[in-house]
Amino acid sequence: MLGRVVSISSDVPATGVPFVEGVDQTIIKRPWPGARARRVSPAQVVTAIAGLGVTCQAGDVKHVFLCGNPALDLACTLRARRTAPFETLDAPDRLGAWYVESGLVDALAPCEESDLALAVEVREAIYELVTARLAGDGYDAEALSLVNETARRPPAAPQLTAEGRWVEATPAQALSTVARHAVELLSGPEVPLMKECANPECTKIFIDRSRGGRREWCGMESCGNKVKAAAYRARKKEAQTAG
Ligand SMILES: [Zn+2]
Q1: How far is the CA of 225 from the centre of ligand 1 (A)?
Q2: Which of 105, 107, 216, 226 could form a disulfide with 2 if both were Cys (CB 3.0 to 4.6 A apart)?
Q3: Which residues form the Zinc finger CGNR domain (predicted)?
Q4: 77 CA to middle of ligand 1, Å?
Q5: Distance of CA 223 from the midpoint of ligand 1 (Å)
Q6: Residue 4 predicted with pLDDT over 80
Q7: pLDDT of 7 strictly over 70
Q8: CA of 134 to the centre of ligand 1 (A)
């Protein structure tokens, strides 16, 4: 039996437990534009988490949704690809948590090892296609066929209930939904807005919807402040050496 209601915000703490404000209700933020905002009670969240089989592992790195599109967010679950690659989808339940936290589904059947292996393969294919597009190169045939094949499968189907929209899915359906987002993104009007984060160590690719297209960082907290602080320290050191 799947949990009744869950939609977890991007404010999920490191433990993987949804961030709950107040006793009765928590406001669930939209993790990416287009995702629904929802109000759920802590009890409902707990029920849903239990139903999802999502376990809470201390020390887990929080999933982030800064890219503006679920396909890009999935691609960025392998962080710092060029310098010190860091895998955030390191267990099947971490993938399950990602699907729910992304706002793509409200409840998900438990993820198996095979679901994780396939999701990682599709993620790499999406990254391959996105980076090819950014570089103005042609698509890798294998990556293209994997993403298309995944998108061809049945996606997570939204259902209307008295409370609003409700999406229950299997991991395969959730992955198909992500692949469809990749297809729509790479064939849509936002391709020119795709950018890699200006932090050279960060390899996140996001959609810059800012006015004037001046967004440099995937996030100020994650990269902007870090790079600015490092530049400040470098300038200070230089001034001291010169002095
Ligand atoms: Zn970044």
Answers
A1: 10
A2: 107
A3: 195-236
A4: 12
A5: 5
A6: no
A7: no
A8: 16
Residue 79 Cα to ligand 1 midpoint, Å, equals 9
CA of 237 to the centre of ligand 1 (A): 24
CA 211–ligand 1 middle distance (angstroms): 19
| Whether pLDDT at 161 is above 90 | yes
Query: In this predicted structure, what is the pLDDT of residue 228?
Result: 84
Percentage, residues of the chain above pLDDT 90: 65
Residue of 125, 121, 118, 101 whose CA lies nearest to 171: 118
- Give CA–CA dist 111/117, Å, rounded: 10
Of 135, 80, 70, 129, residue with least CA distance to 105 = 70
How many A from CA of 87 to the centre of ligand 1?
15
- Overall pTM > 0.85: no
CA of 217 relative to ligand 1 center, distance in Å: 5
* Ligand 1 centre distance from Cα of residue 221 (Å): 9
The helix/strand count (H/E) of the chain reads as 7, 9
Confidence check: pLDDT of 5 > 50: no
114: which residues sit within 8 A by CB, 6+ positions away? none
Please indicate whether residue 26 or residue 90 has the higher confidence score (pLDDT).
90
DSSP characters over 43-77: HHHHHHHHHHT----TTPPPP---SSSHHHHHHTT
Q: What is the mean predicted confidence (pLDDT) over 74-93? A: 96
- Structural domains of the chain, ranges and CATH numbers in brackets: 64-242 (1.10.3300.10)
CA distance linking residue 108 with residue 198, whole number of Å? 35
Query: What 3-state DSSP class applies to 140?
Result: coil
